[in-house]
Amino acid sequence: FRGFLAAMATNLTECLQNVYSKMLISGESFKYTPAELQFYTSMASVVVQIPASVLLVDLADVADSTTTTQLALYILNGVFFHFQSITAYVLMDYISPVTHSVANTTKRAFLIWLSVLMFGNDVTVLSGLGTCVVIVGVLLYNKAQQIDLQMYSKLIKKEHSGLPSTMKTRSI
């Protein structure tokens, strides 16, 4: 149950972050570039993580037990995470926060099933049910977008078809 609550809290905070990021990237009074947004969020995380690491982690033990290969993998992981974040911010400039959140949910389900295929992780009833919920949710979201687009197209056609009749000239 704690895992479920943690997953829901993660989803909620990521959705809020997506909405706030979209607001910052496409704001009226101020507009940040994806690189600026990445810089400021990185600086904020450094301010939080350095004191937490100093207080909670035995740095001498970590330094002794970390191999050069592990350090290289940590750095590579950081580089890839940086590019993932920049890509997410650039993508956020073009799509809605809801679409971005749906894509993230789909990505998570894909990664769970990739772990099943690659590492032989067991498929539980909950993971199967979760995947079904994700698939149905994505299908419903796509259907809602199609309906919204059709209604918008009809509205535009209706506005354009009404134009000539309102612009009739009077005979003198």
Automatic annotation (TrEMBL):
Main localization (coarse): membrane
Keyword Magnesium: no
Protein keywords: Membrane, Transmembrane, Transmembrane helix
Record-linked Pfam families: TPT
Claim: Endoplasmic reticulum is one of the keywords in the record: no
Membrane topology: Multi-pass membrane protein
Record's protein name: Sugar phosphate transporter domain-containing protein
Native organism: Homalodisca liturata
